[in-house]
Write a structure and sequence with these properties.
Blueprint (H helix, E strand, L loop, with lengths): L1 H80 L15 H6 L1 E4 L2 E3 L6 E2 H8 L7 E2 L22 E5 L4 E7 L13 E2 L1 E4 L10 E9 L2 E6 L6 E2 L2
Parallel strand pairs: 1-4
Antiparallel strand pairs: 1-2, 2-3, 5-6, 6-7, 8-9, 9-10, 10-11
């Protein structure tokens, strides 16, 4: 009996020690797993934040490129006609830039631009605050009339928007930047435009700007600041 007890005792002690080792290793593995999960969560958050910032910056650069393109159109207009396209000082976002830069044909009581909506001659004053367009040609007018010229080149469809009101539906120039943070995405933002003496930043030429929303913030892209400016 004594020999059996002595033989069995090490086995029992060995079992206890073996169980303790298994419990310790299981606990340690669980801690490791939780640590790895935490690290992965932090890294994923950093990656997503970085991707969001990169997307936002890319969209702002896109809007700045559209601003530079529009500046080229306006300056080309001035070089050929020695005046800047007229503005609408009462409502700078309700400006006739598209119609002036695209050019219109005035026939049968309607102004028709290439690639945009035609509007009635009677609606020009209520919409834009002026009697007609400078860059326009009336086939039935005087033989000495200057033909219309198209200064818009390479304009994409998403750089134009349709505006509807109680008077007429018309085409305006805009910036469209689908936001990765907002669903549904923010609507297109119209370009604002004022010429001297109405312009307050470029007092001898013109002010051109647009306010776009990205990630809950508003950014202004203008022709008096090379870089976009965050407003809020």
């Amino acid at each position: 009996m004594k020999n059996k007890f002595q033989v069995g005792l090490p086995v029992a002690q060995g079992d206890v020690r073996f169980g303790s080792v298994r419990s310790s290793r299981a606990a340690f593995t669980l801690i490791e797993l939780l640590t790895v999960i935490t690290i992965i969560s932090v890294v994923a958050g950093l990656v997503l934040a970085g991707a969001g910032a990169a997307s936002k910056n890319a969209k702002l650069k896109m809007a700045e490129a559209q601003r530079d393109q529009l500046i080229t159109f306006i300056d080309g207009y001035y070089a050929r006609r020695n005046v800047y396209p007229p503005d609408n000082p009462v409502n700078p976002s309700n400006n006739p830039l598209f119609y002036e830069l695209a050019g219109t044909t005035n026939a049968n009581g309607r102004f028709s631009p290439p690639g945009g909506l035609s509007i009635t001659a009677a609606s020009v004053q209520p919409i834009f605050g002026m009697g007609g367009f400078i860059n326009s040609f009336n086939p039935a007018g005087d033989a000495g009339d200057q033909p219309m010229q198209t200064f818009i080149k390479g304009l994409k469809d998403n750089q134009k928007m349709t505006v509807s009101n109680n008077i007429n539906s018309y085409t305006a120039l805009c910036v469209y930047l689908p936001s990765p943070y907002v669903s549904p995405p923010a609507p297109p933002a119209p370009w604002n435009y004022l010429i001297a003496p109405h312009a307050t930043n470029n007092t001898t030429t013109y002010d051109l700007w647009v306010d776009v929303k990205l990630g809950g913030a508003t950014y202004r892209i203008s022709n008096w600041n090379k870089q976009s400016q965050r407003l809020n």
